[in-house]
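=== RUN LOG ===
request id: a7f3
mode: sequence -> structure
chains: 1
length: 128
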Amino acid sequence: MINEFYIQAIGSNIVINKAKGNKFWNNISYPTNGLLTSEQINLYINKFWDEVAININSNQHIAVLFKVKYEDNNIISIGSLQKLNKEDKDYYIGFIKDLLSLKMEGYINTPIIEIKFYLCNKKWLSSK
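=== RESULT ===
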């Protein structure tokens, strides 16, 4: 198993990548002001989409895991790994908003300081 790290710039973000087997996981993070609103979800997913999904063909897919980092430095996954193509942006925005509305009831007292997209850069050529 390969276990190495490298740094890459994607847009305005610094990305730390970890090689695991033949897949590389990119961690793209965006800071928040402690409160994650519906507008911020739209903004950050659109920004992520502009930086990452623009680089795939219409018949390719990317794997994305959405996480949030709390003020106490705990990081939790919101939902499961999603296999997405270029046309799935609106679906993904709705999916994350729905999950956050369910999960935030239990975490409302701890501010969210960062959202993270974990992206597997292995592009699947098969359809969903």
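=== NOTES ===
The two ends are 28 Å apart (CA to CA).
Residues 89-107 form the longest helix (19 residues).
=== END ===
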